[in-house]
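User: Could you check the structure of this?
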Amino acid sequence: MQKFVYYAPTEIVFGQDTELQTAGLVKKYGGTRVVLIYGGQSAVKSGLIGRVEQNLKEEGLEVLSCGGVVPNPLLSKAREIAKAAVEFKADFVLAVGGGSVIDTAKAVALVLAAPEHDVWDFWSKKASLEKAAPLGSILTISAAGSETSNSSVLTNDDKTPPTKRGINSDSFRCCFTIMNPDLTMTLPVWQIGAGAADIFMHTSERYFAKILGNHLTDEIAVGLFRDIIKYGPIGVKDPKNYEAMSEIMWCGSVSHVGLTGIGAKGDTAREGDWACHQLGMAISALYDSTHGATLSAVWASWARYVKSQNLPRFAEFARKVYGITEADDEKAADEGIQRTNEFFKSLGMPLTITELLGHEPTDEELTKLADECSYDRTRCIGSFQTLDYDDILAIYRMAK
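Assistant: Sure, the predicted structure tokens are below.
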């Protein structure tokens, strides 16, 4: 086992009706003036936003509510809310929603700590990421894991075509997250399936690492794979199944809190691959596609393209996760890839880019995707196998 530092400061409050504890948690972490950020009108119509507002106000907290965050969250909306939060003199940011809302809240928290900066200054590394206002979250979509991660992703809609970028900082980790599985039961099954795919991928990106060496970390990852493979399809078929929705929700947080990547690279967590996320983010940027669906559309093509870098790793994945008994590593690896595609299909997720987009992309479209993914041919992606522009384009063509 290698040296590592593990940091996961988020207080997790899990269970039914836990959103009623919101005000006490905000006050615990120093909040008095709260900017409450949410997405569409479903959270309002369900009564959740009203209940949370009432809970905060009954405890003497001032509240500014800002809705309208969309999937693949936009820079323009983050700027709008950040401006309103600064004018309101907010000292706490509360996200009520899924990854897009929480990622937007993280952007607002950075601006509240340094209001002289534009939101994109942090994404373009023109401003420091070392300080942010305190924030918390009430999770309503199990998927991105942003409630326990140090990551935030925004789509810069100032650019044509838009571009999607992510940053990492421990400064904007949530102080607390409230996780009530009941709040996820009214989601469309498409979102539940896409969320389960994203959860699987957060562990896949860490499991298929170039540097290995922590067996307990691998066992945690394998357990998470098996749990989401079991309960993800159950949640899609029966969103009212509390056991399934609870397991999906907890898998979502654990998958992105860093546990499945500990202990195999110097003084930090295992360096994950993240190539599939970069491939998927380019699709989301150009087509506004659902994040989890972009990942399922490219994973098998990526896996087949890179498996020769460490074939025993893919074979081990197949045997431990799916119980495959094939002795030949290559045959076992191929069966594991196929079984993963079957899992994605059971979630209702696309297995190709054509299926995702609803049309067969032209080679010009695939070239534009490769340009976006490679930042106009200025970067490579991945660590399991480093992928340059030509590799990226080849995977997109395989995934077509």
